[in-house]
User: Fold this.
Amino acid sequence: MKKILYSVLAVAVVLFTASCDESRLEIPQKGVTTYETFYQTDEDALSALTAAYARYACYVPGRGRASIYVPIRAALNMCADDAYAAGSNFGDNDFMGSLNEFRYDSGNEVLENLYQGLFLANYACNLVIDHFKDGLPNGGPTETTKRAVAEARVLRAHIYFVLTALWNTPPMIDHVISDGLPYNSDKDPENPMSHEDLFKWVAKECEDAVPFLDERKSTSDKNGAVKVTKGFAWALEGKALLFAKDYAGAKTALKKVIDSGKYALVPGNKYWQNFHVEGDCNEEKIFESNIEKDATMTSGGQLGSRMTWMEAQIWNWRSDHCMLPPQAVYDGGVDGWGGLGVPLWFGDEFFANDGHSYRFDATLKHVDDAFYGMEYNTKEINAMSLEEKKASKEIGILDVKDGLYGQSFWLPFKQILRVTDAWSKGKNYRVNNNIVMRYAEVLLLYAEACLQTGDAGQATWAVNQIQQRAGSKTISANVDMETLKKEKSYELWNEGCRWLDLVRWGDTARVKQAGQAVPKLFDKLFREPKSGEDVIWENGSEANSRFYMVYTHEAIDANWKVGFKEGRHEFFPFPTSVMDKNPNLVQNPGWTGTE
Assistant:
């Protein structure tokens, strides 16, 4: 990979605000273009750190055409077994569809955008670390430079956690390189590092940074949720050690977060707020990258550079395949492309475990609850009785070819834009923050570390905290790994954890079947089942059902090779564009780099 270059001017431009309230950290743009006149003062250290946060936040939206697919979320969620890459039809949303069905290759644009975005963010962190690790040029270390370097080190550590988890042994670039091309970390002639070594490096970076980091003041400290603190460093250290199978070390680090008293689960009736603007910077957030509504910004490139442009559209329900979109009041009329679907098995299992818990109702919605229970923009429809709605063609799924492609009877609800999440009503820019780590994940990571170290009592305590807050009808008397895995899948659905867990646990049975059958959800008032179709009725029979599913096999029919393959899909291939420019980089096992 070539050295990534951009000017200090670009680095100093403020794209990110490091506060969540009115006392925002606003660093003015520096009118300099050379190192000689920058990186001189505490103010410069803060400005460079702000730019590092900006670059870190911007790797989420990514760049180019595939940026609308939010690369980090696509990469961490679409390969898992608890989601479909849905859309209008087979072939639509194929950036995600190819990931979901394991049809992707080294030219996949989502993966390329994410990989490049991560290294751009890494470069911005290295600029801070390289220029201020010894303090100011004429004054040595200050409290400001020590904190700025520590925060940049933990941001960089998280970047490398993602790179390692997804790409196995990516090049270790822990400083600004001026010449030469890097090697895979395990093939570096000067400092070889294995996959496990990289996770341990992440943990050590966090441990070394902790003395110089601020601690969150309290559970009500909003600023402490949108900057790197001791709590986030401990949490990331623990997660990295867990992935490195150092369970005792992971348990110790994660316990520090719990014992700090600076974080707490929000009450069950506020669970939904975690994923919307109402929950930004709340007591449950360990760290989230801040996307703050700013009245001085327009809806053009400046706004798009710090918000996940079009994210709402790809994740919201498919509007144009419905007579009236049942979510229109909820999301303020933002049209959706329906890019996320829920497998029937997952919705059924989750509901059987939780019932109508706070957690379940904030995560998924049954098709009946969506079309019959949500408020419409039309008073006449809202005034209808349930039986009238069930018989009305004024609502429902009107598309007769593909219905709602990739959707089962359980519709994804957690990710849908609310009116308050949007820049303004009807706009596709969302302003709620991007969660990197919340306290619920810390408890579940801690529970796993406890189980692996023989402390079943503490594991049960941690999981019970999650279950009780969820309002779940299942409260476990004893917790084992199977219980933990299920609770984690329910609690953290679509939060970027499931795929990495499946790989490290070796739980790949379902993803081996990915792409073989994808559901289409139909409405019998607009499309009667066709002869020969294997129909699944929502309530078991046609007599008491309006909606039904059929499975399609279009990927196989098009002669695609689908499904997870051992020895190949545990890690993503390095992008073709990167391989072409760096002869030192060796492609991951199972990939040729030219497919």
Residues 301-431+518-552 form one domain. The first strand starts at residue 84 and ends at 85.
